[in-house]
Amino acid sequence: MMRRAFTRYGNFRQFMLPSICQTSGFHTSMVTAVSAKKFVFAKRFHGLPQHDNFSLEVEELPELKTGDILCEALYLSVDPYMRPYSLGWPLGTTMKGGQVAKVIDSKNDKFPIGSLLVGYLGWRTHTVINPDIKSKNFMEEITLLPELGQLCPSVGLGAVGMPGNSAYFGFLEICKPKPNDVVVVSGAAGAVGSLVGQIAKIKGCRVIGFAGTNDKVKWLEDELGFDRAFNYKECDLKSSLKEAAPNGVDCYFDNVGGPLSVAVRSHMNDFGRISVCGAISLYNDTTPTLVPCVEPAMVFKQLKMEGFLIHRWTGRFQEGMTQMSTWIQEGKIKIKETHTEGFENMPQAFIDMLKGGNTGKAIVKA
Questions:
Q1: Where do the Enoyl reductase (ER) domain residues begin and end (predicted)?
Q2: Is the pLDDT of residue 13 over 50?
């Protein structure tokens, strides 16, 4: 298995990485019968996922009907949400998740052969689908990949996709930052947290990040412009917060939950705002984690604490994607992706991501 981390900066020319981001040209020939590889949810998770939770299977895809397209996965996403969402997934179903795919056969004029799309097609190499049939299931919606200039198409799964919109709307709409606010971000070196911190800097805030390795701390401070960053595994949380934010914290973007979030809440100013994106530190727990009650801090500090699911802003996704693209092009947002080579390594990439093995967005190149 090969894993690589890529950093992207500045204007669009600096983003092109031919060895990783290259896609073949537009096809004009029609495709005959195709077999798809897919990972099936074979066994319920207990603690950290293991390889025997997944089964690699092969299926023959049906012939295309009017309106159908056949697409081939180029890049696939592994994300923290997959772990808690799996509680509602029936065994035997294809693992759910987003991918950037190329249309290799089409009977739909809106999705011509050679076009790129992004959608929640799951952990599979090929898919036959009619994109005109709308579904109430958020996971099944697909759209053409927006124009990304010379950005690698994989950013459609990251900074210009669901994680980017999670950072953009989850932070701005819930925390409502003001210039000079003190903002704390947990999971700060991940796909969402690294973007939240940079958005906060754009808005004129002082930003403090918590991550899980010294290399990530260095990246946050030296490259992303965080004012302070700490390795939560090595620091005293209370002392670090007091040092970095002597006058308290105004906004907290919470990706991890657990003891770190308890420490941040206790250090917040009156009328502080908390956006809860996730609780990755708890997803693999086999026994409940005991932490102090949140209510005393909420009441006596008069805090606002709000969780969110990103599809709340489905109707505004284009706004978020356009703004994130603009900030990247202007050099105000820097992004990094950790790429794992090979579709067969989807389970390992997922496990590594849950263990904090990625910096920035975790991506599998099919």
A1: 47-364
A2: no
